[in-house]
Amino acid sequence: MPASPETLAEARRLRTLFEDRSAQVVKADVLQPAETLLDLYGEDIRARAYLTSDPLRGEMVLRPDFTVPVVQMHMESQAEPARYTYAGKVFRKQETDETRANEYVQVGYEVFDGQDPAGADAEVFSAIAEALAGLPVKAATGDIGILTAAVAGLKTIETRKAALLRHIWRPGRFKSLLRRYGAAKVPAKRAALLASGDPFAGTGPEIGLRSRAEVEARIAALRTDAEAAPISAEEIALIDEILGLRETAPNVLSALSDIAVDMPSISPALDRMRARLDAMAGRGVDVDTLEFEGSYGRTSLEYYDGFVFGFTLVTRPDLPPLATGGRYDALTAQLGQGRAVPAVGGVIRPDLVLEAR
After folding, report:
1. What are the extents of the domains in the chain?
2. What are the Class II Histidinyl-tRNA synthetase (HisRS)-like catalytic core domain coordinates in residue numbering (predicted)?
3. What value does the mean pLDDT take over residues 53-63?
4. Is the confidence at residue 120, as pLDDT, over 90?
5. Which fold has domain 5-28+63-150+237-356?
6. pTM: predicted TM-score of the whole model, two decimal places
7. How much is the pLDDT for 95?
């Protein structure tokens, strides 16, 4: 469905605002190689993106966002610092909410700057806020980096930490895993499998895609997990406390500082949060009233790994956010073959801006 002339005009207006901040206009093909997204997010991406097969290019995907192709372009150019802006359609499946559009125009502003990450966070947030000036919007912020630091500091085996980190963006699965790792008792079916002297006895011929060696490795991993001590109730309670935080940013920072006494692994992330709030205040953001949610951003695409934010319409809480954004340093390392560049960006939906007016 083509975008309305009004939406396209608003998209041009927003993109011009970002161009005025010295952002370079970039474009990305509507059809993108699916291999990159599958490598990043696994087969789960098939539930959220439109994939198709091209006889020459192989499996392709309708562009679910601009960030991944922009990062790929930037990592090839190696220019830093750099600022980019773009406008165009993105396509995403909506399996649980028929009211949400599965294709819409998106305008973005991305900053790659390793000199002053806190300043870059503040720059992008304030740029989006200024683009929405005069609209009845409310900002919410969070920080995925605090949760990942908390998980990385848990007193448990590395495979458990890796599993929890992999499911941070799936809140239900994350919660169930955390509870399971905190339980002393191994599930009955798994206990029976691990107690068997030969798990392959009586299983019949080998079929399927996994080799016997892969199955044996998986059983060995399950044994290691079963032998590991449970995650303490105290650590689980601290994770729950972080996820349950919802207050103004200064109050949350104070609460997190208290949590850091028992969970020191989050201290560096708190230093980054403190520097970011200072930088935002320096740009005129009222941080004393800025909302912070410990679980904010966990249902977005999985590349955000630090500061996250969104702007919602106060008068229409049923609508999707008018704008969202965040930091995605780890994504640049993945797409840059190990060479990471601190990066942060935000996107605005011009159709929702028009509705807000």
Report:
1. 5-28+63-150+237-356, 157-199+211-231
2. 11-170, 220-347
3. 83
4. yes
5. BirA Bifunctional Protein; domain 2 (3.30.930)
6. 0.86
7. 61
